[in-house]
Specification:
Elements lengths: L3 H15 L1 H13 L4 H8 L3 H13 L3 E7 L6 E7 L1 H5 L4 H11 L4 H10 L2 E2 H11 L9 H13 L3 E3 L16 H6 L2 H6 L2 H9 L3 H4 L13 H4 L17 H9 L2 E4 L1 H16 L6 H12 L9 E5 H9 L9 H10 L3 E2 L6 E5 L1
Antiparallel strand pairs: 1-2, 3-5, 4-5, 6-8, 7-8
């Protein structure tokens, strides 16, 4: 349950970005939970057009999730709208999100900025916006260059495909059977709020969320030339045959948004890396920074895991790093409590 202070903060954020009417609709959903368009209008005494336009803005900026659910008995379903509290608060962190990408993937900053400002866009819209942002007299990037930079963001999980726009959610169907519910810890029922259940219903699989924009190749001989690897050339270069229609759909119809979870993880990582800096020696500091920088993707938001090859590459880019031996680097990692994992001794993990 969101506190009144939290609701007030969220409403003020939306008011600053989108004005008083949109903030009223957001506040109504935060206070009363899932409501239909008509119910929102009655509570706020707004016209259907005002409510609809406000909801479209909130959905566009990932602050509201629409879903259909049984209502009133029988087979009747209705579209309901639910405010996603955490997504509203994330709007405060726009500048910090950009600072993360400036370090990791600087050439993709314009793409990310477009998604931060507009909520969700197709790749086609991002291409148009990127070209429009190029200063007069500067060379225009090619579509392939923009696609490659965008795929880097997707590969690093900074950007994801949007969840299902209006999934079906039946509150009765997701309830556990009585026998199972008796054996389950009570805390599980308390943690799974309506918001979490709806978000889970709308969520895509990881393979769908982070599926990159495909490259359409007219001839198989040119396939390898157009297929870019975005993971330090470690991924295999294989001929990729993509149907032209599928490629066009992916570019013009799939909606994309920033992945808040990934950015929050990166900000935690940045804070953790900065906290020890003042107390560390130069050589140790270089290895500490390299360890955090080498972490590319991680599904666990409580630990940082980096491969030794990536750490060595990052250390070599720092002052005095080229003279450090592998044994020295591993010794420092162990002293910093970055331990090698059981499954893969070539990876080191730090627990927050």
């Amino acid at each position: 349950m969101v506190s009144q202070h939290g609701i007030l903060l969220a409403v003020n954020i939306i008011s600053d970005h989108f004005g008083p009417i949109v903030s009223k609709v957001c506040g109504c959903l935060l206070r009363h939970g899932a409501l239909s368009l008509l119910e929102i209008g009655r509570r706020l005494e707004l016209s259907p057009a005002q409510v609809k336009n406000s909801l479209l803005i909130l959905i566009q900026h990932n602050c509201v999730q629409a879903y259909t659910s049984p209502r009133g008995g029988g087979d009747k379903t209705v579209t309901l709208y639910l405010a996603i509290f955490d997504n509203v608060l994330h709007r405060l962190r726009f500048s910090k999100f950009l600072s993360v990408v400036r370090v990791d993937i600087p050439e993709s900053e314009v793409l990310l900025e477009g998604l931060l400002q507009n909520g969700r866009l197709t790749f086609e819209q991002l291409v148009e916006r990127t070209i429009f942002k190029v200063p007069e007299g500067s060379p225009l990037p090619t579509r392939e260059e923009i696609r490659m930079n965008f795929n880097k963001l997707v590969y690093a999980h900074y950007v994801e495909r949007c969840p299902k726009s209006e999934p079906f959610f039946d509150p009765l169907a997701v309830e556990q059977p009585t026998s199972t519910r008796k054996r389950a810890p009570k805390i599980v029922e308390a943690v799974l709020s309506l918001e979490q259940k709806v978000v889970s219903t709308a969520a895509l699989s990881d393979a769908e969320r982070f599926s990159q924009i495909p490259y359409f190749m007219e001839g198989s001989s040119s396939a390898n030339d157009g297929h870019h690897a975005v993971a330090g050339n470690k991924r295999k270069h294989e001929a990729l045959e993509v149907d032209e229609e599928d490629s066009i759909i992916a570019e013009s119809e799939f909606l994309w948004r920033i992945n808040f979870e990934r950015f929050i993880f990166c900000l935690k990582k940045k804070f953790c890396a900065e906290r020890k800096k003042a107390k560390m020696r130069l050589g140790t500091l270089a290895i500490w920074e390299a360890f955090f920088e080498a972490n590319v993707t991680n599904n666990d938001n409580k630990t940082v895991t980096s491969p030794i090859d990536g750490i060595l590459e990052r250390v070599g880019q720092k002052e005095g790093g080229t003279s450090m031996t592998l044994d020295q680097i591993i010794s420092v990692l162990n002293d910093l409590e970055c331990t090698s994992t059981t499954n893969n001794p070539e990876e080191f993990t730090f627990d927050y």
